[in-house]
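Run folding on both entries below.
>entry_1
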Amino acid sequence: MGEWIDFDRWPECAGMERPGIVFEVQNEERQTMTTGCVIPLPLPFDWTSGPVRFRIVEQETPRHSEPLPPPSSAN
């Protein structure tokens, strides 16, 4: 993981984007979210304060979900 960067520098995120990385954003209450470089950044509905810092993190490897069960036969 990268070092924390002051959120005032968020507009610079476009120059930091690379394949396989995303950004972890943190607010004053230490709530975090993971996102790509989106300006302006949409915040989660339950955040009561704005973001204060961000850092570069590796994107999680996608996981396959379990297959859906077959439909039940309703007669």
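>entry_2
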Amino acid sequence: MKKKVIIIVLFMFFQLKGQANNQLNEMIISSINSYITWKNSFVKRGISVRDTCHYYICKDGLPADFPCNSMQNVTFLSLHNWNGLSKSLQKELKKGISACCVWLKLTDRQLAIRIGGRGVKLIKKNNLGISVGDWGIFTYEYSCEKQKWLLANTEYGGI
């Protein structure tokens, strides 16, 4: 029975991947928004003074069909192809930016969406320096009876 559940979950996960407006993208957007809200709470409490009105998100860990234009105050960029970025964004990279990286991990009936805050700076003409920062893990479980993914756990932390 366990193998059938895993196969069904995998089928539904990959079936959703091909649609622009799907539950996978909705879960990623919801997780990114929750992470941003958590980060903004530090400014409201006076713990951080970093400007949080605009976020950079690395699209390298996102599905190819992710609707990047669906989020406000967010710039999506690729750290694999940073030479193709606009001149103004390359100038920002020389100063250093905070960026969020997203990873997806599917195991059994759980999908973990991990978001990590990273400091990104262009050190030399062809070298990016990336530092580790805080993180959020959003764990979703698939419900066979409801036939959808449900948020089961949220964790935040940092170094």
